[in-house]
Amino acid sequence: MNFAVLSSLFIFFSLVCFQRLSAKPLSKNEGKHAWFPPRGWNSYDSFSWIISEEEFLKSAEIVSQRLRPFGYEYVVIDYLWYRRKVEGAYTDSLGFDVIDKWGRMAPDPGRWPSSNGGKGFTEVAKKVHSMGLKFGFHVMRGISTQAVNANTPILDSIKGGVYEENGRQWTAKDIALTERACAWMPHGFMSVNTNLGAGRAFLRSLYKQYAEWGVDFVKHDCVFGDDFDLNEITVVSEVLKELDRPIMYSLSPGTRVTPAMAKEVNGLVNMYRITGDDWDTWGDVAAHFNISRDLSTANMIGAKGLLGKSWPDMDMLPLGTLTDPGSNEGPHRKCRLTIDEQRTQMTLWSMAKSPLMFGGDVRDLDDPTYKLLTNPILLEIDSFSSNNREFPYVTGMNGPRTRKQILSQGIRTCLTKVDKSDTRVLGLTSCKDSKPNGWSIKTLGQDLAQICWNDKSGSRYLAPYCLYKRKLPLALDAEIIYKQKYQGKHHLLATDGMELCWDASPKGKPTSKEFNRGSFSPCKWDANQMWELNNNGTLLNSHSGLCATVNAVQDDAVSGGIRSWIATGRKGEIYLAFFNLNPEKTTISASISDLAKALPGRNLKRCNGRRYRWRRCRGALGAAASSPPVQNLQITKSVQSSFLQRLLLGRSPGSRYSVSVYTKHSVSVNKKAFNRRSPKAASPSASEFKLYLRSSACCSLPLLLPHHH
After folding, report:
1. Of 140, 226, 229, 250, which residue is the least packed, with the fewest Cβ within 10 Å?
2. pLDDT digits (tens, 9 = 90+) for 540-574
3. Rounded Cα–Cα distance for residues 40 and 216 (Å)
4. What is the residue range of the signal peptide feature (predicted)?
5. What helix, strand, coil percent values describe the chain, rounded to 5?
């Protein structure tokens, strides 16, 4: 029997007892909005922006039939549903959108024929609801450039008619902050001035209309991460509280999110993205390990949210049949992740209790993808587990694989900390955080100065990270208002010889794996390029209200190493997942005694004589017990000895699990040796090979492994 896996394969098993439960739709808890991580389907990964009403409703029908029984209840149209699908239209094109007389977006009637006559998405929402599903869509920040150019009037949704205040009627140009355009869609949308009653009235008119259409879920884009707009998020959250129907409130994207930023929004929303867009590359998947760890450590998983709870969102699952980022094409290619990388992604998302939003084409849902999406153990963990966090007490070792070589080496190298490096990148975080107050000014000459970051790591080898400060240029008549607004603020340049200024938010839309080392573009009067050095050492950006930091990273920091996560099940069971992120085979070890460190208050000192079933579960070596939950657990030395030495080729001193994860190589297990030791061992079938190990302290452990030829 050979056991071979790829570099991204994780080892997943549960300790104590686990009673297999059938996956059922999540029940609605009255007054407990988003009590579980939301689950559903989103059109972006498979259709980009071009999906039609016919395609959407067909997809919703399949979700209802095949995925709703497993709790997938939301179907969400992603961005640009209001853009006409004609020649010249693309992500950042201008002049192709459908807007009503109040400057609000309306569905493109060419793609959404039921919207004719001002019906919006009313008919689509009714059909979705009749399938037992909930309906959602994507919206952008503020107001569209097209509405501003048309200077449409602002609707007073409370009194009716045009919004009036101070004896005048208000229009789009009165509330638009043209210098705060969405960085990755600068021709599309810009912020509104929420300090004005008219600005708040415009946002209220949007979300009241969405509720009238029957919307259950709103994905609000370009207001979080690098494009943080806390004022707009706050106003929208307040409007949603006033509505007659609950609407799930989601923020996107989450480029360079920090725990401090998350703490500013969690009480206002139900979901918030924590990375850039996640696509089907290993780098994008691996990029989620650090930020999910940081947010779990900050106790943000399932924290207080809008009318219920909130969840860090690790983005959609780009599995199955997909399109490409920003494409004008529909689904046309298969997911590029290996099956082991897909299992790794699904397991991490579940252990971190992320919302699960499938992004592939459900009309072409292959069997492996379907089984992964509906894995009952992972869905159980995602919905009902608690105390979810990274388990740091693991060690890993590369290199020799035989027992003699392992014992002779006598060393195990911890691979958990993989992000130490001299490479530094510019970042953003909440100004309430303690990290960003490391900036100071350095005068180089009469008209030349730098703003420098003083490293707090204590390393004497790192020179200060400096940017050149440039005074704002003399303003033209049309720019005088901007000069007054940005008094005391500066442009920052990478060198003193190039007229390229630092953008807080990148002009493109980075994916999860892309470290932003500083986006520089031609200098202009743009809040995205305006920076203010405060007396407390913070460097404040005018676009997002976030403060700059400098972070040390390693180019491949997120793509290598070993990781482990732990969680507690609702029946008292313990879940432990091992992840090998290395490109080579690695032995991973963890001690039972260390479980108590991660789970204070749990008694794990002795075995209670229960029967456990170890098995291969969709790419993972998994274990589950069929008996009721117990409070105590110990894997005795005799069991470990046989399990580690004979099967997994590695054992460290003391009571430790040692798990070998293999990449392109395989290791043979001598089934005759096991049969001699365990007479009850069954003959291998086409799908599994059973091994029984005996212990004087514990009952027998039936071991189920895949049978590879």
Report:
1. 140
2. 888 788 888 887 654 444 456 888 999 999 988 88
3. 12
4. 1-23
5. 25, 25, 50
